[in-house]
């Protein structure tokens, strides 16, 4: 992610346009106007040049070059980012989808001085995806007594399947 420009100014302008009574209230910027205000062509060029110097081809850029995607071997990223990647396995995901459970991440990385001011972050380095919550299914639960008019009388609060431990683990 390329370091964007004018973010403090953009925040101020957004607050003005979001404040009832302000003459600019609800006069929103277009995607193009925000892009012109925040894009950093010099930063994007510096990052693209750095990638090219290391024989890495850019495979995609966002509309205003805020984001650049490049693919290379892990060994090459290790050398460029002065780091070591490790294989991590997310065991909260379904067991049959090993492809989606294993990821390569580093514990830290560093950037060359001439590139660091132009990059906000390098994705898929130290970031990990969210952990998925286990899903619980109680197959033995039977709802033979349907709830009728008087809810308080017919519902049993102390059902044996719902325990404090179950609720703590589920939530």
From TrEMBL:
Q: Which Gene Ontology BP terms does the record give?
A: proteolysis
Leader peptide range in chain numbering: none
Which residue numbers delimit the Peptidase S53 activation domain? 2-128
The organism's superkingdom is given as Eukaryota
Which SMART domains does the record associate with it?
A: Pro-kuma_activ (SM00944)
Quote the InterPro entries the UniProt record gives.
S53_propep, Tripeptidyl-peptidase_I
Q: Name one GO molecular function term.
A: endopeptidase activity
Quote the PANTHER family the UniProt record gives: PROTEASE S8 TRIPEPTIDYL PEPTIDASE I CLN2, TRIPEPTIDYL-PEPTIDASE 1
This protein is called what? Answer: Peptidase S53 activation domain-containing protein
């Amino acid at each position: 992610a390329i370091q964007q420009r004018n973010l403090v100014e953009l925040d101020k302008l957004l607050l003005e346009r979001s404040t009832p009574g302000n003459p600019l209230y609800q006069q929103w910027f277009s995607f193009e106007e925000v892009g012109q205000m925040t894009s950093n062509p010099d930063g994007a060029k510096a990052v693209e040049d750095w990638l090219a110097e290391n024989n890495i081809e850019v495979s995609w850029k966002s509309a205003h070059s805020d984001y650049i995607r490049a693919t290379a071997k892990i060994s090459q990223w290790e050398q460029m980012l002065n780091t070591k990647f490790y294989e991590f396995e997310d065991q909260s995901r379904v067991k049959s989808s090993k492809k989606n459970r294993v990821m390569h991440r580093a514990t830290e990385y560093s950037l060359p001085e001439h590139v660091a001011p132009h990059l906000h972050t390098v994705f898929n380095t130290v970031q990990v995806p969210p952990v998925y919550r286990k899903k619980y299914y109680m197959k033995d639960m039977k709802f033979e007594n349907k709830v009728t008019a008087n809810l308080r009388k017919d519902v049993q609060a102390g059902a044996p399947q719902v325990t404090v431990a179950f609720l703590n683990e589920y939530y």
